[in-house]
Write a structure and sequence with these properties.
By secondary structure, the chain is mostly helical. It has one domain.
């Protein structure tokens, strides 16, 4: 039996993009968030992430995915206007 995978991230990205596509496209993480992500990536390269840091890095990656999809959808919406 083949089932379709439901992607809640796509649904959230659609919602964000529909609110204000221009603001979605302008969104960037804060300097503090970017610095923390870079720290986690460095620690990960060293193979020394704690369990909490691994979860934190996974959250960063999830949010990045949602934002990328939202930006793609925002571009589509603006192109349709």
């Amino acid at each position: 039996m083949i089932t379709e995978t439901y992607n809640i991230f796509d649904e959230l990205a659609d919602l964000l993009a529909s609110m204000d596509p221009i603001k979605v496209l302008a969104f960037h993480t804060s300097a503090a968030a970017q610095k923390r992500l870079e720290q986690l990536l460095t620690i990960n390269k060293e193979g020394a992430l704690t369990q909490d840091e691994t979860l934190e890095l996974e959250r960063f990656m999830t949010v990045e995915h949602i934002v990328r999809v939202a930006k793609a959808r925002a571009r589509q919406q603006l192109a349709a206007i």
